[in-house]
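Format notes (please read before filing issues)

Several people have asked whether sequences and C-alpha cells are stored in separate files. They are not. Every record keeps both together, in the order shown below: the sequence lines, then the C-alpha cell lines. Line labels are part of the format and must not be stripped during preprocessing.
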Amino acid sequence: MTSDHRDEKTCNSKQRRDSSRYSVLCFEQVERLYNFMEQEIAIHGLGGCPPVRLTLKDWVQRVRTRLEADGVPVRDVRLNGGGASYIIGMDPYHTYNDLDLLFGVDLSSRDTVDIIRRAVLECLHSFLIEQQRDADEKTEETSSETEQDAQAKRPLPQQLQMVEAYVSKQARIEHADRWFLLSLGSQDGLTVELKFVDHMRRQFEFTVDSFQIILDSLITFYKVQPSSSSISERFYPTVVAEAASGCFEEAFGHLRRREICTRCPEQIRGGGLLKYCKLLVDGYLPAQGLDVPHLEKYMCSRFFIDFPDARQQRVKIQSYLAAHFPPADAQLRTLYLQILADVVCNSTVCLMQQERRSALYLISELLSQTYFEAEAAAAAAAAAAATSTGVALEPFNSADWVIDQVFYGTQLFPSVSCLGSIAGTVYTTTSAGCSTTTPPLVTACQLTASE
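Then the structure lines:
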C-alpha cells in the first residue's frame, strides 16, 4: 500500500470519528431549546442585592455583541453540561443546578481576560439598569432614548464594583489549558457559569454531561425572525450538538438508560468523585462492562491529590452540597454523604491510614451537621405552625417544684433517696438494697451531692 493510500485511509477514519461526535437536533429538541432560551431566570447577588432577571436569549446575544464590539472575536457559543443534557435527553424529570455557557475566544493576550470580565459586568449592569427603569415606570422622555445612546453610556468603575456582588467565582487557567471562568449568582439560587475557552483538553466528566449544543444558528435565527413569531415544525433553525466524549450515539444511549460511563478519570480535576456520587443519588447505575473498583480508585486518588488537606476537602464538599442540594432536602444530602463515605472507605488506596480516617471523620461530621440542621429546621417549622394555630405553651412556674429525689454519695457512686408518699419516711436505694429510714430535715444544702 502506497503512502497516498495510507494517508487517505487515515483521513477517512478521522472524518468518521469526527462525524460521530455531532448530531442534528430534531424539531422536539429544538423546540425545547427555544423555550429554554426564552425562559426568564434570576441571578442573585450577595449583600441583599436585587436579583437580575433576564433570559438566556438576551444574555447570550448581548455578551457576544459587547465582546465583538470590544475587539474580542467569538468563534462560537455553546450550551454545556446539565442544561444541554436536559435539552437532548427530553426527560421531563431531568434537573440541572447551573447553566454552563462556553464562548470560544482567543486568550493568547493577557489583556483579553480583563476585557472579557469588564464586558460581562457591563452587560449585567445594563440589565440591572433596565430592570430598575421598568420598576420605576420610566417617563416618556426616558423611554424615547435610543438604543445607541444607551449603549454609549458606559457604567462608571464604582458601578461595576456594585455589580461584582453578583460574581460568585472566577478562575483563570494558563498552563496546558487556557480558559477563563466567571460564575454569576449565589449558591442559594441558579448559577450561570460563563467559560471563555481558548483550548481545553478535557471538557467533560462523564458521557451523560458531555453534550454541547452550538447556539450560533439559533442566535442568527433570532436576528432574522420577527420578534412576535415562533418556530414551527415547518420553520425552525438547524441546530447541531456535539458529544465531547467522542461518540454522540454512545453518550445519548447512556443518558437515556441513565448509565454512568467515563474514561481516564485521573484527567479530571477532583477525579469526578463528587459528580459520580451525585449520579448514584439520582438513580444512575454503572454501564455494563465498566470496571467500577478501578474507576472509583482513580477518582479517589485524583480527588485527594487535588485537595490534599482537610480544609480544602471540607470547602469543596460543602460548596458542592450547597450548589446541588437545597438546604431543605436533608434526606438527599444525607444519602449523598453516605454514598461518598462508602466510596472513600473502599477505594482510598492512595492514602495513609491516618489520612483515610481524617477524610471519613470529615464526612461523618458533615453528616452530623446535616442532621442537626434538619432537626433545627423541623423544630422551627413546628414552632411556627404552633404559633400560627394559636397553640402556645404556658411558662414553667418554679414555685410549683416538688422534691422527687435526693442524691447522696460521691459523683461516681451516688445513692438515690426516693421520697415516698408516707410523710416522714424516705425509701433509700443503695447497692445493698432498699431500706427505710427516718429522714433528717431536708434543706437546700442537702440537695447537692456530698463528696
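For reference, the curators noted about this record: The chain has 15 helices and 16 strands. Residues 259-383 form one domain.
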